Amino acid sequence: MIFLLLFTTFGSWLFHELYWKRRTLPPGPTPLPLFGNILALSAEKPGYEAFRKWTKVYGDVFTFWMGTKPYIIISSYSRLKETFIRDGETYMNKVQLHFQEFIRDGYYGVHS
């Protein structure tokens, strides 16, 4: 009886992590529960090669997971410009996270 309860709980948790949380987001690589796509990034040297590969597979807009937090990646300039001009007010007051500071400071992504 306890085994059935544990199995059901674990199955429900996996369903939530692998399907339910991702259902409204753009497609992307399947994340590992708790780790996201971190292991896939560390497997590709340098790390941004994983983003190039995912762009070829999933297109200009895809979802990437850092742990349990999703990030929507827009990988083409024209799509980026279209998104931020058309929906600019949506993105005006977003909170800066540590990962965003890492990208902004020139380790990955577009920088000056």
Q: Mind summarizing the main beta sheet?
A: 2 strands, antiparallel
Along the chain, the helix and strand elements come as HHHEEHHH
- Overall outline: globular
Number of domains: 1
Task: Tell me the helix content.
Answer: 40-55%
The share of residues in extended strands comes to 5-15%
Indicate the low-confidence ranges by residue numbers: none
- How many alpha or pi helices? 6
Q: Strand arrangement, largest sheet?
A: 1-2
How large, in whole angstroms, is the Cα Rg?
17 Å
Number of strands: 2
First-last Cα distance: 60 Å
Structural class label: mainly alpha
Instruction: Kindly report the average pLDDT value.
Output: 79
How would you describe this protein?
This protein is mostly helical and 112 residues long. It has one domain. Helix content is 49%, strand content 11%. It contains 6 helices and 2 strands, in the order αααββααα. It is globular, with a radius of gyration of 17 Å.
Features:
Cytochrome_P450_fam2, 2 strands, single chain, two-stranded antiparallel sheet, monooxygenase activity, Cyt_P450_sf, mainly alpha, 112 residues, 6 helices, monooxygenase
Short structural summary:
With 112 residues, the protein is mainly alpha-helical. The protein is 49% helix and 11% strand. A two-stranded antiparallel sheet has the order 1-2.
Task: Please describe the topology of this protein.
Elements: H1 2-18, H2 38-43, H3 48-58, E1 61-66, E2 69-74, H4 77-86, H5 88-91, H6 98-104
Antiparallel strand pairs: 1-2
Keywords: Iron, Metal-binding, Monooxygenase, Oxidoreductase, Signal
Family: Belongs to the cytochrome P450 family.
GO molecular function, one term: iron ion binding
